[in-house]
From TrEMBL:
This is DUF2842 domain-containing protein. The keyword Transmembrane applies. Keywords: Membrane, Transmembrane, Transmembrane helix. Pfam families: DUF2842 (PF11003). It comes from Shimia haliotis.
Amino acid sequence: MALSYKARRRWALVILVVGLPLYIIVASVLATWLNPQNFLVTLALYVGLGIVWIMPFKSVFLGIGQADPDAPPEDDQY
C-alpha cells in the first residue's frame, strides 16, 4: 500500500527528528567500537554509514520537496 503525500511528509519528519539522531549515536558507537586507526578508514566508515541509513527510507523521502499532487490547483487570478 502506497503512502499518501501527507503521510510521507509526516514519516519523513519523524525519521529526521527521531530516527536520524538515534542512527548518528549508533554509528558513532560502532565507529568507536571498531576503533579504526587510519583516518581514511574512519572517513570511509562514516561516509558508508551516512549513505546506508537512507536506503530503507528512499521511498518515503521521494518527492517530499515538491508540491502536493493531491491538492486542488490554485487559481493565480487576483
